[in-house]
Design brief:
By secondary structure, the protein is of the alpha/beta class. It contains 13 helices and 15 strands.
Length: 370
Amino acid sequence: MIIGVPKEVKDHEARVGIVPSGVKELVDAGHKVIVETNAGKLSSMPDEDYKAAGAEILGSAEEVWKKADMVVKVKEPIAKEIPYFRDDLVLFTYLHLAPIPDLTDELLKKKVLGIAYETVTDKNRTLPLLTPMSEVAGRMSVQVGATYLEHEKGGRGVLLGGVPGVPPATVVVIGGGIVGTHAAKIAMGMGADVTIIDLNLNRLRELDDIFGGRVHTLASNSYSIADSTRKADLVIGGVLIPGAAAPKLVTRKMVSQMKKGAVIVDVAIDQGGCIETAKPTTHSDPAYTVDGVVHYCVTNMPGAVPHTSTLALTNATFPYVMRLAKNGAINALKADPGLKEGVNTYKGQLTYAAVAEAQKKQFKDVSSLL
């Protein structure tokens, strides 16, 4: 198989889909890897490393997309990449289609086999390819939130951990999954007063045990969310329904009642966001203010730390890349029910139910197409 690795073109996206060590394994297994020039440069992985691993370096994205049987990326394609779609292409990347109907339409029209990292499951029904970036984004959310609480960034001028004689900032984390757990870990480590809100009482019990009772836990309902966000200096949205649009748990009214200069970091923005006033932003223009509350809603937060993020991501994705290359996409999907869960588009059909529901499109079970 010919595996193509184009350079990411989303705003300030510096990660790369395959690292040189992965290239070597693929080449050693008899596959060909073509990499767009400087694809890994911003992740501190220069072309020389890819050449030494056996990759062929090509000068343009168009060449990579045209020659590859399977394109391995990090982020969903943007407008300039859509002309490269074709009906025999396998695309393996984050897709996050629920809030992007235009991209969905193009993938369906061109009959691309679109396999989304974020909906691949493992034998425990967890999301192994979403987990590493959720870990990074969860940890980054507190780092970013602490920065935007500074007066120069439009925040309240609050130090997250306080100092002796001055109370710490109040951090409210909505969602007790991977993002929420890692956000709480960093916020607590910086000395903040942390509350985690989740719908699952068993998960709240686990979190209480994990943190030794040092974080507050609250059952999720509109009252507890409204009351907690009103008192918060920093609110972190980390709610996930796999593949589906995130529910709007923090309403516009709740935001209007928050402290002026408080900060919201909506990590769920990839799936539309769990804050009603959230809208996607970029690393070039990351924040905006609504009702005096600073909103940071960058859709590719881990792209700001590309070396760490690329290594964390490819540690998880590469075994699937190798499986797809070794067995061919269709055989690999038939053999692995969890990988089959990753198929969002195939043969012009929308094959992930949550995306179909979010976009009010017709759903087709991928098993009937394979």
